[in-house]
Design brief:
The protein is α+β, with helices and mostly antiparallel strands. The chain has a single domain, classed as Nucleoside Triphosphate Pyrophosphohydrolase (Alpha-Beta Complex). Helix content is 25%, strand content 27%. The strands form three sheets. Strands 1, 2, 3, 4, 8, 9, 11, 12 and 13 form a nine-stranded mixed sheet that branches. The radius of gyration is 17 Å and the shape is globular.
Length: 257
Amino acid sequence: MTGLDDAPAASSEIVAERTSRLTEAGRDQSFANVRPRDSATLILIDRAHSVPKVLLGRRHERHRFLPGKFVFPGGGVERADRVMKVAAHLHACDTARLMKRVKRPSAAKAAGFALAAIRETYEETGLMLGAKASGRPAAPDGPWQAFASAGVVPDLSKVHFVARAITPPRRPRRFDSRFFTADISAVAHRADGFFGPDSELVEIVWMAINDARRIDIPAITAVVLDELQERIKTGMNHDHPVPFYRMVRKHFVREIL
């Protein structure tokens, strides 16, 4: 299934161009195959400019997966992400789409994807999304304790589900990634010392979406930026289609969740 008839925001020609771009992207697929791990990514947007800017981080050259590439903050989903309390829930449309094509779907699992994106963004950039609490909020042990110490509770109503993509087979690492976006105004707390020469991200940059395509980013990052621009043009409407990219018989396809 290509999903060409299911995406009113993108013509069949545009969809074909995006899937072809992903299929033809140069990549080494000589590794032993592994099962994709659930992961989540957050695209922070600054819309105070005529052309919106997005936050990107450059991965360390020592990484086995995507070394030196500019990517959005993100990483694997942890068990604690499903039990972290929130100030407000995801939009119902996003919850429903996040529960599609997953094993044992639940609202808690859907929220866990978005919470993982928020947690990973803090761990990689020092930017904490949420709402200020009146006291110290409850949080599970581990990384979420930083939110409790800062008096911040994640606010999922500020987050939009943009896209889902699975890393092709036979890559050194594989992820079943959910891409989210949120406005920079959703940041409630900032901390220093989270990126640098010895960190996962050696630098972070704010770049206009059009300029971001000119730097060294993975093919899927460029395609998700295309999807994001279409969503911005609709006024960030939650009814906007959410695409799902994956490789089938050595070719990428695009379905709508």
